Structures are given as structure tokens and as C-alpha cells.
User: What shape does this take?
Amino acid sequence: MLNNRLILAIVVFGIVQIFYSCAAKKDDPGLEYAPNMYHSVPYEPLTQITDEDAGQWLSTRIDGKGEYFNTNINNPYHMNERVPPAGTVRRTKDGFLPYRIPKDSIDLASRILKNPLDSTAEIVNEGKVLFSRFCQHCHGETGQGDGKVGLIYKGVPAYNQGQTKDLTEGHIFHVITYGIRRMGAHGSQIDIEDRWKIVRYVQTLQNQ
Assistant: This one.
């Protein structure tokens, strides 16, 4: 009877220890069950473990390094991610690359972004057509915030009043891309070049 209780106590203690050890806390990730299921064998382009001894206790690698070490020593600077081959990142016909300024950096965009398109009549007219498709329902035909949807939501500012009339081209482009407050993001709907065309047209509305 005593032996049965002792065995039961040992089993219960073991189970508690397993669950306690597996629990992550602070900098301790806890024990991992079947850790090979959590760590990628191929090189991960966006993560990199540079410690050659990481996972040494588990390692069966023939090079003697830890199981979790995943730095590609064949690349420059041992980086996992490499520069894409020329021509594989989509550009517009004018060579525009994807927009990289983060959403929360609107002040930076406002200061440094410049419209690469000239304010020719052709560009402004194309911007007007795009504005009528994507913006007019809220901002109104003349940018007074009196579009049919804008009247429902209320609070859509007129382009030629207050601080809105002084917004920079970079600010306008950034807002079209990511949205602001109740305005939704349009970066996935309008390509970069067309966004700049809309900016040119919006600037004409700011000056009315």
C-alpha cells in the first residue's frame, strides 16, 4: 500500500514538474516538447539565430553546431535574407518602388516626400478622374467634404479651409495610402503613380 502511494506521489510530482517546466516565464521559454517541430530547418529570411551553440543539447548536426543555429554562412555578412534579383520587385512604368514609410510616420512623410509627377494639365485631369472614383463620395466634387457619404459621417474637412489647405503633398499621399481617423486606407486599391495624380488634383482643390 505504501509503495503504491509513493509511486502515485512520484507520478503526480512528475506531471506537475512537466507542466511547470513547460510554462514560459520572463526570459525562460520553458521546456519544449518535440522542439524540432518549432524550429525551421530551412533558413528563415526574417529571423536569424547567430549563436552557434543554441540548442546544442539537442543537436544531431554533423557540423557540431546547435540545433537552432540558422545563420547562412554562405551569404555576405552571414545574412539569411538577400537582395532580390534585379527585376523581381514590382515597379511602375516610371520606376516607382513599393512605399516603405510606416503608417505612424506621417510627419516624416509630410517633410520629405515630393511628388515625382509634374502638375501638367494631363496629370491633373487624370487625378480628377481618379478622385471622382475613389474620393468624391466622401470629400465631394469640389473637395468641400459634402459628398453623399461624407454628409452621413460628418466632419469631413474642406480642402481649402483651416489646416487642411496647408497640408503638404507628402502628407496627402501618406493619408491616401494608410488612411487617417475615419478615412480608410487606399494603398491596396490605388497604385503609387495614381495616388500621386490624385495628390496633384487635391492640391488644386486646396487653392480654390
The domain at 106-206 is CATH 1.10.760.10 (Cytochrome Bc1 Complex; Chain D, domain 2). The chain has a mean pLDDT of 78.
